[in-house]
Amino acid sequence: MSQWTTSQLRAISARGSNLLVSAGAGAGKTAVLVERIIGLVLDSENPVGVDRLLVVTFTNAAAAEMRERIGAALVARLKEDPANSYLLRQIALLGKASITTLHSFCLELMRQHFYHLSLDPSFRVSDEIESDLIRADVLESLLEKHYFVLDEAFCALIEGFGGRNDDRGVQQLILTIAAYALSQPRPRAWLLEVRQKFDLTDKHSVCQLPWYDEVLAEITQAAEDARSYLQKAQSVALLPAGPGHYGPVLAGELLSIDRIALVSTDGWDDLREAVLGIDFVRLPTKKGGDTALRDVAKLYRDKAKKAVKSLQETYAGQSEEQVLAGLVAAAPQVQKLCDLVEEYFDLYAKAKLAKGLVDFADLEHMALAILDDEGEPSAVALELREKYAEVLVDEYQDINGVQECILGLISRGNNRFMVGDIKQSIYGFRLAEPGVFRAKEEAFLEKPEIGECIHLSENFRSRPAVLCAVNYLFRQLMSGRGVGAVDYGEKAELCPGAVYPEHQATASPHVELALLDRRVVDDEEEADLDVTAREARVVAKKVLELVQGGALNVWDKVLKCYRPAQYRDIVVLLRATSNRADTFIDVFTQLSVPAYADTNSGYFEAIEIMNMLNLLRVIDNPRQDIPLTGVLRSPFVSLSGEELAEVRMAEPRLGYWDAVLAASQLENDIGYKLIAFLTQLNSWRKLARRGGLPELVWQIYEDTGYYLYVGALPGGLARQANLRALYDRACQYESTSFRGLFRFLRFIERLQEQSGDLGTAKTLGENEDVVRVMSIHKSKGLEFPIVFVAGLGNKFNLKDLNQPVLIHKELGLGPQVVDLAARCLYPTLPRLAIRRRLRGESLSEELRVLYVAMTRAREKLYLVGSINKRDEAINTWQEAVQELDDTLLPASMTSSAKCYLDWIGPAYYRHSDLNPQSPYADIDGARFCTLHVQAESGGAGQVALETMAEFQTVASLLPLPDHGYGDVLRQRFNWVYAAQAATTVPAKMSVSELKRKLAVEMDAVPYQSLARQRPSFIRGQQGLTASEIGTAMHMLMQHVDLKETITYDYLTGLRADMLTCNLLTVAEAEAIDLSLINQFFTSALGQRMLRSPKVWRELPFSLRIPANEIYPGVEGEHIFIQGVIDCLFEEGDRVVLVDFKNDKVSASGLQAAADSYRIQLELYTRAIRELLKREVHEAYLYLFAAGVPVRVDVTPARV
Predict the structure, then answer these.
(1) What 3 state SS string does 645-701 have?
(2) What does the DSSP 8-state code read for residue 803?
(3) Which parts of 882-965 fold into alpha helices (H)?
(4) Are 813 and 799 in contact (CB under 8 A)?
(5) CA-CA distance, 584 to 574, in Å (whole number)?
(6) pTM surpassing 0.85?
(7) Which distant-in-sequence residues (6+ apart) come within 8 Å of 203 by Cβ?
(8) Strand, helix or coil for residue 427
(9) In the structure, what pLDDT confidence band is assigned to residue 613 with cuts at 50, 70 and 90?
(10) Whole-number Å distance between alpha carbons of 1148 and 996
(11) Which band of pLDDT confidence, cut at 50, 70 and 90, is reported for residue 818?
(12) CA 556, 562, 568 angle in degrees (round to 5)?
């Protein structure tokens, strides 16, 4: 930025104290932060090395951008002074500088100081997939343990807060409470405070309860609202032509309302009696007078009645005795919930420790444990205080309590630089606490010696007209005492800082409000379009007008000139994109508007993913009718609906899988298709048991050609990207501590049940000329020349306020009482108090979300919403705000809003020039326009996804013009790669894969039904798989000290030591049969190994062999073979090879087992000859279960 404002210069140059920079939207806070860092590094008097700064951001992308900007600034300075060695050093140090996210900083701290945490230094951070699976297992184990006991409190929790047929409601409740606790610096202390709130030992009245003040505030506010309405009715009644006979009644009602304030400190029953004592009698009738004035007086009085009625129904239903009795009844459930959460913490920590994992919540809390020493900075914290000359935090409005503690411990008390904007704090769902920012600002204003507040109000993004509209709205809505949690005063208002040269094509209004009427229209086709689709049509037509009609030129920052608007200049912002974004894309497509929606949903609904998941489910268990019929109908088998019916008729009595088996014997097209499918399915099921999930997924793509098939469909690139994403997610899943197809499908099902999704794969580049459709949250930090904010009439999502247990970080838990005897739930006082607080906080965040949305626009802002009975609504808005003296709208109006239009409408229509007859107004110099959009006739419905089967065959084609390229094209299309055979050969194989390739195909394994698992408390403790037990036994065999005397007692001690060192889990240790291992060491083969002068164990090898040995006909290619040899020992000048197996084989099957592993041992023999230059004299397969070695005749010529 070439010229800095006074406030920006102060933020850049101030030294020696804490600084809190409140930067409004578009105020250039990132540029200020970078310039401050450069100023610190290049300070002539006290330079600070870039490695002595801690710069904290909230995303990796932001950290990378910050590092890049700092590097560019340093390089620019170096060009001015090329010989400056100090600058060269700072540029060199930049790569190691602490410019990072807080999570990354905490992780690095844990890596360096793991010994403070008794943590294995090889720990890794689990991803969300792995964490979710571990949490699910832990919760299942936790609740099953309590099902054994079934105490009354636990039964009440399951009955009251579980689901209709399961306990998932309780599971989710435990996770939610745990998340709230983990957002606090001391989670268990927070849980203790929650418990103590329900301890009524020293509380004998409602007034002593910690929730009373919140409830009293609600009662007082409601009474004040009712009083205000009655006073307005009274004023109308006292007018000359008004209904004066209403006066005595209204005066009496005002007195009864005033009594609430008089008894508010006397006790709950007195307060309740006062509330119930407000009685609205029938108004007296009298002829004459102005009918309109009488109706207005009645209207105000009806609003007062509504406020009082709500108050009476919500708070006056229970006496003090009943309120306290409800708390006594709820206390055991609260205590039980807290017990379950603490048990969950312990079990989850134990499960992570066993796997050597930490999750994201652990990063902050373990870092805090390193830095905190019983409330004081630890030695590590003091070291970091010395290391970092300044701690700079971006997006400080999104900090939480734990993060604030960490930053406080590593700063000195006068070296913190915090920049953010509380008006843009929109991450409450991530438990961000804007109150931290507000408390810091209040503290600095009260005590300037501990810190300074700097406000950056200049906006270098938007046109003045856009800023005027934003300021006009939010100065009426935002209040530090009410909605918004911040005063929108002079310092908060946005001042124009961007320069836009005048241009004729930009003279139209820069802010437009498009209001649609929700009423049902006469046109049937239009009626089929829902509200979102109708709004999308309005937006799409306006987009076409702007781009194709040339209605707007925009200023190009790069070209420094005006140019016609393009699609990529436009964004459509939605509060929530789920379902709605797809509707916008469909409508835009109908109207030929190129558009793209970057959503976190739609992945599982993509047809190619549905087909693949169905196929994976069938591979896991084919006796699932819905996935099975889905696969048969899909391109994998391509049966028609009629053919599916014929399959059913082949075996109408049993399951559909039995019908498929029966129909596969038919001598017709259906039978041939099914035989081919069953053969392929059998192959995939073998691979699923023996190989990894990623290999299975990719093998399906190759065997079926499905990846290429979807690429030929409309949107083929996106479909292929989705399939690649499925493969990538399978790889990601396999990289966790979980394995297997069943567990992967279980995770997917849990994600879908919880309304989760993974988002479709992204195939769009940044410079694509399309309209972006995105959520308001994703737009934060971005800017666009033209912004449409749509869906402003959609109701706020406040469904969390209806959860059976409400949670607040300060007020604790607000449960409903579960009355098992009466089979009912009823609210407690804390629930009512917390619901009020949460609703206020949710509305405040919604207002901040609206602020973020409107401040994304540079040149043109469109506000689009639908409302019932539009003209009546406008009249209601204007009546509600007429004769208001205060700039702020009344709290009763802002706090009762149900959608954004409930704020926008009264605020904008408060302007005298804006009304249905005059849609244009000059608001603070900004030309403002409202569009009253009528329901349109015509228009297409939803676009259905076309399938290949629905494509119509083209009967005839017009002859194509001959440009002389025919021969060239034929030559290119007929070209064949010379080494085509080599493309089918893998570059690398494992020994197991090569064994499967060379082995004779085993007989088909008959299908066994996979019954639904019973709970472990019924079926007993579930053990490890045979493969996992074998791995554990190999691990122990590898760590046996061959110089020791090997006895059963020695092996017992070794197992205990490995368990202590986390080399074995408890389950693995318990699964190892030490007698089988001891039996090997007492056998003749084991004694020979113990006498050997040299023994190799778990010997890895790599071998390069000609491809034609495995794939005949492929010449000149090689395959890289990798494997691990279990055991090899010397006997004189010869070596003996031993391969350990955990297979359970009968005495009659020993030779067959040896034959099945011969190829594997032959490969080992060849590797030993070529790499160690030794000949294998004997090769043995040792079967632990049988307790005998089987000699294998190895013939290297086979491989």
Answers:
(1) HHHHHHCCCCCHHHHHHHHCCCCCHHHHHHHHHHHHHHHHHHHHHHCCHHHHHHHHH
(2) S
(3) 891-894, 901-909
(4) no
(5) 10
(6) no
(7) 209
(8) coil
(9) very high
(10) 23
(11) confident
(12) 50
Three-class DSSP labels, 107-158: HHHHHHCHHHCCCCCCCEECCHHHHHHHHHHHHHHHHHHHHHHCCHHHHHHH
Token digits of residue 1088: 């020979």
Q: Which residues contact 662 (CB under 8 A, 6 or more apart)?
A: 650, 651
Q: DSSP 3-state assignment of 737?
A: coil
Instruction: For residue 951, give both structure tokens.
Output: 């494509």
Q: What is the per-residue pLDDT across 522-557, written as a single tens digit (0 to 9) for each?
A: 444 444 458 999 999 999 999 998 999 887 899 998
Strand 1118-1131 versus strand 1134-1141 pairing type? antiparallel
Residue type, 338: C
Share the mean pLDDT of the chain.
86
- CA–CA dist 333, 870 (Å, integer): 48
**CB 345 within 8 Å of CB 383:** no
Q: For the packed helices 1074-1082 and 1048-1060, what is the interaxial angle rounded to 10 degrees?
A: 130
Specify whether the CB–CB gap between 792 and 861 falls below 8 A: no
The model's pLDDT over 74-98, given as tens digits with 9 standing for 90+, comes to 999 999 999 999 999 999 999 899 9
CA gap 493, 471 in Å, rounded: 6
Between 210 and 165, the more confident residue is 210
Note the pLDDT of residue 987: 73
Residues 1164-1180: tens digit of each pLDDT: 999 998 888 889 999 99
939-962 tens-digit pLDDT: 322 222 222 222 232 323 334 445
Residues 6 or more apart whose CB falls under 8 angstroms from that of 741 comprise 616, 619, 620, 688, 693, 696
Q: How far is CA 1160 from CA 244, 474, 686, 857, in A?
A: 104, 74, 18, 66
**Measured distance CA(1114)–CA(1109) in Å, rounded:** 9
Q: Report yes or no: 1038 and 326 within 8 Å, Cβ to Cβ.
A: no
Higher pLDDT among residues 691 and 702, named by residue = 702
Is there a contact between 611 and 630 (Cβ–Cβ < 8 Å)?
yes
Tokens of 240: 């000359």
DSSP 865-903: EEESSHHHHHHHHHHHHTT--SSSPPHHHHTT-SSTHHH
Taking a C-beta distance cutoff of 8 angstroms, is the pair 368, 187 a contact? Answer: no
Separation between Cα atoms, residue 1006 and residue 1020, nearest integer Å: 27
Measured CA to CA, the distance from residue 402 to residue 436 in angstroms comes to 11
- Whole-angstrom distance, CA of residue 88 vs CA of residue 492: 41
Could you give the CA distance from residue 199 to residue 177 in angstroms, rounded to a whole number? 19
**Distance from C-alpha of 274 to C-alpha of 316, rounded to nearest angstrom:** 9
Residue keyed to tokens 């992967």:
744
Cα angle value 531/534/538 (rounded, 5°): 135
Supply 77's token pair: 């300075």
- Give Dmax over CA atoms of the chain in angstroms: 126
Question: Quick one: residue 1001, left, alpha or beta (phi over 0 = left, psi -120 to 50 = alpha)?
Answer: beta
Closest listed residue to residue 51, CA positions, set 28, 79, 31, 70: 70
CA–CA distance, 1158 with 1155 (Å, rounded to integer) = 5
Compute the distance between CA of residue 94 and CA of residue 115 in angstroms, rounded to an integer: 28
Q: How far apart are CA 993 and CA 975, in angstroms?
A: 33
394, 33 contact by CB (below 8 A): yes
Q: Please name the residues in contact with 680: beta carbons below 8 A apart, sequence gap of 6 or more.
A: 703, 704
Q: How far is CA 202 from CA 199, 208, 215, 488, 660, in A?
A: 8, 9, 20, 43, 71
Distances from the Cα of 79 to the Cαs of 39, 73, 82, 93, in angstroms?
17, 10, 5, 18
Query: Partners of 860 in the beta sheet?
Result: 786
